[in-house]
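INSTRUCTION: Work out how this chain folds

Fields: amino acid sequence; protein backbone structure tokens

Chain under study, with its fold:
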Amino acid sequence: MMKTFASTALALTLATLGVACTPINQAIHSTPSTQTTNISTANISTAKEVAQLSYIENLKSPEDLVQIPNSKWIIASGMTHHSGLYLIDSQSKTTARLIAPKASAPSAEFKNSQPQPHADEMQIHGLSIRAIGGGKSLLYAVNHNGFDKNIARETIEIFEVNANTAAPSITWLGNVPMPKDDKGRYLAGNSVVSGADGAIYTTVMMHPHNTLEDMFAGKTTGAVYRWTPTTQKFEKLQGTEFNGNNGIELSKDGKFIYVAHMKKLSKLTNTNPAKVVATSELNYGVFDNLHWAGDKLITAGSRTQNCGETMTYDCLKDFHITTINPNNLAITPLYQGKYSKDFSGVSTVLPVGKTYYLGSFYRDKMAYFESK
């Protein structure tokens, strides 16, 4: 079982790079036959060049970033052991670990919770935050729980964030265990989002029976799973099976699900089975984490124009920042940047005012730059 979890962790790490070694002309059969794919004609040369990055230190693998609503504060995930969650002051550019005190019991809403994880054991992947009023929010975090590659469980952790104090604090509310396959192997979440009705959606990039070779070959390896307060368990949404499901978001009215899967982004009905209503494909990079930025969706990921016919780790070091129209999935490249020895592995972007913050799935820092 430990070997399985180690392989899953490796898959997650490699895939977050953005489909290393996946053929650019990956098979269209990896998506439902009802889908119409529009390959973006957007030109990366129209994007502004990020000439220089500044850095915020003292973080471990800040794979995803969210802003506490109506505040200067940023929460970062730490996708390695002895990390968990971080709190960043966007004004002073200082950071500290964000640790929830020991709770007496989980919330009744999460009655099937596994025990509250120790902060040092949390390896947090994707994040999502939703305001609930009164200066408070709900934070959802994908947790690969365990030290290093010895992942002992897979959960979605839920915290209440209180921004009414000088420095925000969090309270652990409980967690939702990820499902297991028919051989008792946990499915590993990648990204997460929640609905106003309390439903939780997560992507699985690679099911346990799939191999890295399957994913690199462009085969269907992942899906979207939904948990509701009524069902109290994750169930797969039929029709959401793609090659390497990654970032996820909901439409503002909750009627549609947006799923990033390698070079593609699909818009689906929030039903089971789900129906794909639109898909766009990047011609210059891969999608990773996906979040709202005003009335647009925003993503960041590796660029692919130097990859030739196949993608490899070495050709995926540069990055792009791209916005997406949520209605028709029209793509607009905003920024492009080069790999440097100081920063790479860009996995997410968070605009706060005129500052853009970048997360990395393996660097021990996050980056930022000011828009002109």
Q: What stands out?
A: Residues 245 and 261 are 5 Å apart (CA to CA).
